[in-house]
Design brief:
This protein starts with a helix and ends in a 5-residue tail after the last helix. The chain has two domains: 2-63, Winged helix-like DNA-binding domain superfamily/Winged helix DNA-binding domain (Arc Repressor Mutant, subunit A, Orthogonal Bundle), CATH 1.10.10; 68-97, no CATH class. The strands form two sheets. It has a three-stranded antiparallel beta sheet. A two-stranded antiparallel ribbon has the order 4-5. The protein contains four helices and five strands, in the order αβααββββα. The protein is an alpha+beta fold and 102 residues long. Helix content is 39%, strand content 27%. It is elongated, with a radius of gyration of 16 Å. It has helices spanning 2-11, 17-24, 28-40, 89-97; strands at residues 15-16, 44-51, 57-63, 68-72, 79-84.
């Protein structure tokens, strides 16, 4: 699911959750929840907000370029296939949670 959403945002940057849900045939609530998760994981970024005819606000998203590689995590030493800036996914979450280097 992550790859599908990220690839679509790379091909069509600046979409709202509602636009993405319609284009990928997902329920809007599911898309908003998934985008929140991707923002938390720093895979997707909110770059603005659009306002519809009824005054509702909708976040605008773009996929971030992630320098993901294979190697040893600088924090825990575990070999991982998804290192970003030398951190494995688990250590990135821990670093953000405790206010570390995020």
């Amino acid at each position: 699911m992550t790859t599908q959403v990220e690839d679509h945002l790379r091909a069509h940057p600046g979409l709202t959750a509602e636009d993405l849900a319609e284009q990928l045939d997902w329920a809007p609530e599911r898309m908003r929840a998934w985008l929140d998760e991707l923002v938390e994981r720093r895979r997707v970024e909110i770059v603005g907000c659009s306002i519809d005819k009824l005054g509702g606000r909708h976040r605008i998203y773009v996929a971030k370029a992630v320098d993901e590689r294979i190697g040893e995590c600088e924090w825990c030493g575990r070999t991982d296939h998804h290192l970003v800036r030398g951190e494995c996914p688990e250590c990135r979450v821990k670093a953000r949670t405790v206010g570390g280097a995020a």
